[in-house]
Amino acid sequence: MDDWLKDSTEVEASWVTVDLAIFTVRGDELMVLLIERGVEPFLGRPALPGGYVQKTETLREGALRELWEEAGIDGSRLHLEQLGAYGDPGRDPRGRVVTIAYLALGPELPTPVGGTDAKRAYWAPVSQLINGAQELAFDHTAILADALEEIRRKLEYTAVATAFCGETFTLSELRTVYEVIWGQYLDPSNFRRKVINTVGFVQPTGERRLPPTGRPAGLYRRGTAWLLSPPLLRGTGHPA
Question: Could you confirm whether the keyword Protein biosynthesis appears in this record (predicted)?
Answer without folding.
Answer: no
